[in-house]
Amino acid sequence: MKSMAKEKPEDDKHTDRNFCSCDQKTTCKVESILTIDERGQMVLPKDIRERADIKPGDKLALISWEKEGTICCMALMKAENLSGMVKDVLSPLMNDTGA
């Protein structure tokens, strides 16, 4: 997944390193095909880990989309980016409800 930086106000709590501005206009592509071994494990290729700045001990969030009770799509993102993404998605909804 390609991350596109966007300008943020000075008071934004996200650092450039932790901020992801992926949206419907962001370019997505198949980076790699992974094989699941008999223990259910997979290897994230080194070049992908390097480009995504994923280091040993980092936590990844698995995001899934479900259709008719079955997961049809999955994505990985650094867990540290998850709270910012949730905030960005929910903030407009909270403003619309008057909360």
UniProtKB/TrEMBL annotation:
Gene3D superfamilies: 2.10.260.10
Domain of life according to the entry: Archaea
SMART domains: SpoVT_AbrB
One Pfam family cited in the UniProt record for this chain: MazE_antitoxin
GO molecular function per UniProt: DNA binding
SpoVT-AbrB domain location: 31-76
InterPro entries for the chain: SpoVT-AbrB_dom (IPR007159), SpoVT-AbrB_sf (IPR037914)
Protein name: Transcriptional regulator, AbrB family
Organism in which the protein naturally occurs: Methanospirillum hungatei JF-1 (strain ATCC 27890 / DSM 864 / NBRC 100397 / JF-1)
Record lineage: Archaea, Methanobacteriati, Methanobacteriota, Stenosarchaea group, Methanomicrobia
